[in-house]
Amino acid sequence: xxxxxxxASVELRAGSPDAIGAxxxxxxxxxxxxxxxxDALYEAWKRDVDEGKTSLMIAADMGTVGELNxxxxxxRIAAESVSRDGVPVxxxxxxxxxxxxxxxxxxxxxxxxKHWVRNGDQWRVTGSYADGSLTLQRRNGTGKVHxxxxxxxxxxxxxxxxxxxxxxxxxxxxxxxxxxxxTTRE
Length: 186
Prior knowledge:
It contains six helices and twelve strands. By secondary structure, the protein is an alpha+beta fold. The strands form four sheets. Strands 9-8-7-4-10 form a five-stranded antiparallel beta sheet. Strands 11-1-12 form a three-stranded parallel beta sheet. A two-stranded antiparallel sheet has the order 2-3. Helix 1 packs antiparallel against helix 2. It is globular. The protein starts with a helix and ends in a 9-residue tail after the last strand.
């Protein structure tokens, strides 16, 4: 992290409007139509993922998050890194083998051995079953768990994109955000 980025992130967290100027002067702010910005955000995310980085797309609303998740999943299905078949997850999407997902509720009864399923944990789907359940492998590879269909439907989401609120606490190498006049500093 560069010194200006560290200072700007602290200013942004504090709500200082000067932070935006710092990002803008370093070429980190790009403008355009909604479609142009979604394309730019997606391409930046995809470039990072293709380079082996963990990355997250951030948008202000669930509709845009859904669009981005669907686009990422569609490209991964086309590249045959995610199966076409899947089970319903929260938000109306489906998740299949190879998909990246995040759990959204703590559940101590769902154990990976040393740990249990927590809100915000990131996983890769390794098994998808006709009853709607999934087998998940922690993204860092430190545990596997079989998750029942009711938990999957209500508390598992695709993890390619997120709202800013839900992104807090996620650990990734890079993040790309779609911001507008109504976007909060978080």
